[in-house]
Amino acid sequence: MRTLIIMQARTKSSRLPGKALLPVGEYPSAVLAALRAGNSNCEIVVATSTEPSDDALAEILDQYGVRVVRGPLEDVLGRYALAAADLSDESVVVRLTADNVVPDGALVEELVAAFAESGLEYLSQDSPRSRLPYGLGGEVFSAATLRKAHAAATSPQDREHVSPWIRRNCRIAIHRPRALGGADYGHLRCTIDDEEDYQRICRLFEGVEDPLRAGWFDLAKRLASLPGEPAFRVPYRVIAGRACSELTLGTAQLGMQYGITNRSGQPSRGLASKMVRRAIAHGVTALDTARGYGEAEQILAEALTGAWRSRVEVITKLDPLASLAPDADAAMVYAEVDESVKRSCGALGVATLGTLLLHRAHHHHCWGGAAWNHLRRLRADGKIAKLGVSVYDPHEALELLGDPDIQHLQVPLNVLDWRWRASGVDRALADRPDVIVHARSALLQGLLAGPAEYWPRLTNYDASQCVQEIRRLAVKFGREGAADLCLAYVRSQPWIHSVVVGCESLEQVDENLRLFCLPKLSAEQCAELEGSLPRAPEGLLNPSQWKLAHDQVPN
């Protein structure tokens, strides 16, 4: 059976112009990628565009004896169909990209063999589920499957990225190469997307005696040993085929002084960027921010330059709309919503907001539903991809889960918060598997990990007793401390997809990343914890009701 590697390549790149021609291991990077993929004599063709900008690339590939097929610049799926035009339906197509120079013939051959044995329509080495570094893997499918996708896929996303239609409509699986054994390199990155990526790849191949023949596994081990590379990835869940981290970085502390226990203040912009990038490098896939978080959106725009933006989803919240009167007319509401969306797009440096949440749940139905209905129109116009709501209590959640337009819910949840299970929110979410749920306040603005004297003034509630019980249970369950126990409890709730945790320093980022890699609590431990801690009043669970000993008013 004929097998053809089709490698897509182009010279144009907004983040790293001309990257396909940049030298790696004494070869232009696209040439190195093609020659390594074909180094076991598998047939390969590079599919580039008919644009004049790719003339030099086509000429250089030809000089190295690499066959080239040229087609539409943006319609990459069309290019693949053109490159596979002379294949029989039973022939096997391997998809690689010229951004990724580490895959070699041995990796391709193992992938093809696994595909033949699987009986599936599509097999991929998608990182991190394959345990391969991002950029060290391929996809394989039959020519017949490629033709089905080419005939059926219509969206720009499907045409540009080749395989999304196949992944949605075919029988698929993830392939993990045998050589990995128990090793996991899914926290590493070896693609070429921006200057930082390119320099990493140059360091990887520096001193390699034979760049064309060096084995992919040896290069992966070498990559793991490079100075400055992350040593692990935080746990994730696979949602709609994507790896979504169980830790979401909250950014309120980056944009303003926030949190009742905050003693270090707002970090500098340079430090904030380092904190964001440290989290992303260790596998954090979502950042939580808001119009109401001071400078947070602008700070994220500064941190997410180059390829960093492509590695993470930004979830922001609508302005709290405090200036609108309860009887404001629809035109005024539309104007305020438009202004908030415009300002978020401008601050974040994007044309479309990925996920936008209502900052106040009652704005879903205020003003005759004008704000929510206008957000739905903005989503239909492509200004927003997904809509959701940040809620404060279970009653809001239960009411809003009846709206099919809500795709994301953010809830406050911690070891003291008995309300969610008592109200049946977890059971209601079983009927809405399409809703992503993030939990905030896992440490209740740091109170649960700190001494009782930091707690707000409460009537008929013994904060000292609660703190002592949390510490006792942490010891009993073998946890590292109160913060570990409290985070592990929220992480252990099966209806929570990710936990939003803010940080004031780089050390806190590192500590939270590490804590999220520790085991979760068992169901029995969760039950004992829930039965042991004193029942908290709602005035403690909602920071907006706190009576503080200083001037800070939490949000």
Topology:
Layout (H helix, E strand, L loop, with lengths): L2 E6 L14 E2 L2 E2 H9 L5 E7 L5 H9 L3 E5 L4 H8 L8 E6 L7 H14 L3 E3 L14 E4 H10 L3 H6 L2 H6 L2 E3 L20 H11 L10 H10 L10 E4 L2 E4 L1 E4 L1 H4 L13 H13 L4 E3 L7 H8 L9 E5 L12 H19 L4 E6 L11 H11 L3 E7 L3 H7 L7 E5 L6 H5 L1 H5 L6 E5 L22 H14 L5 H10 L6 E5 L3 H10 L7 H10 L5 H4 L14
Parallel strand pairs: 1-4, 1-6, 4-5, 7-9, 12-13, 12-19, 13-14, 14-15, 15-16, 16-17, 17-18, 18-19
Antiparallel strand pairs: 2-3, 6-8, 7-8, 10-11
Helix pairs in contact: 3-5, 11-12, 11-20, 12-13, 13-14, 18-19
What tags apply to this protein structure?
Spore Coat Polysaccharide Biosynthesis Protein SpsA, Chain A, alpha/beta, TIM Barrel, 2 domains, disordered C terminus, 37% helix, 555 residues, eight-stranded parallel β-barrel
